[in-house]
Every structure is written in C-alpha cells, then in structure tokens.
Write a structure and sequence with these properties.
This protein is mainly α. It is built from three helices and no strands.
Length: 40
C-alpha cells in the first residue's frame, strides 16, 4: 500500500485524473476503489 501511494503521488495531475476515471467503474459493495485499494 505504501508503494502504491508513493507511485500515485508521482503521477501528474492529468495522470491522476485518468486513473480516477478508470477506477470509477469499479465498485466493491458500494465503496469505490482508489489508487491504493485498486493496487492491493
């Protein structure tokens, strides 16, 4: 989880937005994924 957080922080704002859009379709029992939870 720490590695995923460091990697996410190194993304540009545009890349972070693209990742957020890609993860928006994922859902786990009513809770959406973020970059860290998706990496796990």
């Amino acid at each position: 989880m720490i590695v995923a957080k460091f990697a996410y922080d190194r993304l540009t704002p545009a890349e972070q937005q693209k990742l957020a859009q890609a993860l928006a379709g994922l859902d786990r029992t009513g809770k959406s994924y973020n970059a860290v939870t998706a990496a796990c």
